[in-house]
Specification:
Helix content is 20%, strand content 37%. The protein is of the alpha+beta class and 193 residues long. The chain folds into two domains: 125 residues, 2-Layer Sandwich (Alpha-Beta Plaits), CATH 3.30.70; 48 residues, SH3 type barrels, CATH 2.30.30. The chain has a five-stranded antiparallel sheet, with no helix packed on it. Strands 2-5-1-6 form a four-stranded antiparallel sheet, covered by helices on one side. Strand 7 and strand 8 form a beta hairpin. The longest helix has 15 residues. The chain is elongated, with a radius of gyration of 21 Å.
Length: 193
Amino acid sequence: MSDEKKVNPVIDDENEKRWYVVNTYSGHENRVKDNLEKRVESMGIQDSLFRVLVAEEPEIEIKNGKEVEKMRNIFPGYVFVEMKMTDEAWYVVRNTPGVTGFIGSSGGGAKPFPVSPDEIESILRRMGQSDKKVVVDFKVGDTVRILTGPFTGMEGRVSEMNDQTQVASIMTMLFGRETPTDINYNDLQKVED
């Protein structure tokens, strides 16, 4: 029996706090978040449903010649829910107005699979809400290489570091000019001299 458990471990989601992705009507993400938070209070399931997150990041938009900062949804049509997958919590989330279902559920009453810890950590870090701190071996003034995104492979000098959001401002050469680019700590590697 113990060998079988090692090969095919059973995940006890009912007692384990995990993140799940909930599908919503597009444009209704914040309304679903508000509805879920109200239902947690009114139905007394604070011990099963913890955080509801709409993954948003700030975006600068030019309106009438002025810069206006607004929030842009990174994953339109989706809300992230940290919960214990009890029957009651599962029922409450599924039956919240605006929710169309869980991602990772095969239907027919099957409970969904949770989001991997690495994936949710990446999303939380992008939003500046991560509890985990990345330890880096570079500091302001060091040269680093960008590992992911549109600037992959480019090198630049670290001009600023924000340990709260875990983002560094990197001065890269773009169109013959030094240009600051904000990059997550995880996506940078120190270039050895």
